[in-house]
UniProtKB/TrEMBL annotation:
Residues 4-289 form the NADP-dependent oxidoreductase domain. GO terms for molecular function: oxidoreductase activity. The lineage of its organism: Bacteria, Bacillati, Actinomycetota, Actinomycetes, Kitasatosporales. This is Aldo/keto reductase. SUPFAM superfamilies: NAD(P)-linked oxidoreductase. It holds the Pfam family Aldo_ket_red.
Amino acid sequence: MGMSIAYGPADADEALRTLDRAAELGITFLDTADAYGRGANEELIGDWLRDRGRRADVFLATKFGLRHDAASGRVGDVDTSPEYVPVACDASLRRLGVEHIDLYYAHRRDPGTPIEDTVGAMAELVAAGKVGHLGLSEVSPATLRAAHAVHPISAVQLEYSLFTRGVVEGEMLATCRELGVSVVAYSPLGRGMLAGALASREELTEHDNRRRWPRFSADNIERNLALVREVRAIAAEIGITPAQAALGWLLAQGDDILPIPGTKRVPYIEENAEAVRLSLTAEQADWLRAAVPGTSVAGERYPEQAMRRLGH
């Protein structure tokens, strides 16, 4: 996502260099969505796959369901109607320049559309050979169970990090493990804050969406940066970077937890990739968990309108 929107101006050349370096490092899981830049991110990935001849080397995931308001350009309604499912998929296939999507998610769920209807339409994409596996994002355990009864759900994408644990831990993770569903952890670095490089709100440019997000507000950011300093101290004691500590902690939660840091620059992809080679001890993982008590993070993870789209 960050290669096209949200975290300052897009830099297509740097994005392509980062994708090249990711491939060199053995990173094979690429996650995009039709909502990222109104299709621009899928087109970027599609250009890279075609120009580098990399389609056979990657596991490609994309999402549908967040439609943009024509007037404002912002994400408006959620549409997971069965009629929209094949339309959205065909549009993604065109932008990506591929014939098959390995993992296709409903990005959010419209509570007015029965999940059984949505997944039934998605299952038809599997039968048609357009999609390999089905996923959901930011749904409730009950919705996951209902969906899984229609067609196996392979993955649920949820925000999960040292900063955001309650979304996953508890009933949701227990349900995923009972059903054999992987958890794809997005924003594993707390939208960059856990990487330890951000020192103040003033460093965020006017084009950076984080200025609108509660955890980066003037009222909350100092409290959250204090928690990051605790993580940084533990990382230094272990001999790794804060980003590697945050990713290593997630990897230590189980083989069914797959972090997807939204990297858009070469040095960061190299730093993050090192986390795969880490093996935190149980004691080190406990230190990191204790450094960020669940109730100590200030602010919701999204603005109010976006929060209303979650957990259905």
